[in-house]
Amino acid sequence: MRDYANPLLLLVVVVLLACHVGGLCGSDACHVWVLSLCATAFIVDAALAVARAVTHRRALMSVVWSVVFLIVGSCAWVMGSTSAADDEELIAYQELKLAYSQGANPFAVDAHGDCLFTVAASVGRESVVKELLQAGNVAPELLAEAGRRAAENGREGVLQVLLAAGLPVDAAVGHTTLLCAAAQNARLNTITQLLTLGADPNLADAEGTTPLMYAVQADNAPAVNRLLQAGADVNRVDADGRAAASYARSSNVSRLFE
Fold it and tell me: Is residue 106 part of a domain?
């Protein structure tokens, strides 16, 4: 029976992860259960591997299973952290939307730098963004901030609405640009959208970092290839005097500069 313990436990973990992704159970509960099971299995298998090694018995399978549960647990931890950040943003959106329905100003920025308009753009609420654009004149800085958030989160529909409302495709947003924000977060579809609409592939942010450099740093070969096709300059250097190719971390990206 013990030969089936690890496969059965792994099956349970996979089912819990599937429920978490599909929203079939409380995200916090699934996260805790998955991490607890993976941690327990890792400790038990690691202890068995050490004990078997000491007694000169075969410890390979225990080592393999401990590594498997370590990897699965690490993935679950990352998924949980990402989900928590998304949940926080959705909660902020819901609170701001409720306040708006009670008469609050949707363009009033709070202590966190948020307002309903920018958060709606961030979470991809296209209909709300359209409604607010029609409600009154939006300050250029808020329009630009909403565009940045839409670009970095891959909200192409919202970004299209903002661009149609007058947001320049090469707008400077704080210390960055729309294309830099998309490239930094590996948003290939958004990068393609912006380039198709005429975005300058060589327009750097305040640090001198170009979209191509960000795409290379993100190790996103398709995005790098798309920017190169659009005419991105491979010889540009940033504030540290480094060209985009020097940031390559994989052969798939390095090959594109040959």
Answer: no
Helices (H), the chain: 2-22, 27-54, 60-101, 116-123, 126-135, 140-152, 156-164, 178-184, 188-196, 211-217, 221-229, 251-254
Domain count for the chain: 2
pLDDT tens digits, one per residue of 30-87: 666 667 777 887 788 877 777 777 776 666 777 777 788 778 777 766 655 544 445 6
d(Cα 72, Cα 256) in Å, to the nearest integer? 32
Helix, coil or strand: residue 139:
coil
What phi and psi, each to the nearest 5 degrees, are found at residue 218? -80, -5
Query: What letter would DSSP give residue 255?
Result: G
| Gyration radius from the chain CA atoms | 24
Q: Look up the domain containing 243 and give its range.
A: 168-258
pTM of the entire predicted model? 0.68
Q: Residue 45: CA atoms inside 13 Å, Cβ hemisphere, count?
A: 24
Q: Could you tell me the CA-to-CA distances from 163 to 46, 135, 170, 192, 205 in Å, in that order? A: 55, 17, 10, 15, 19
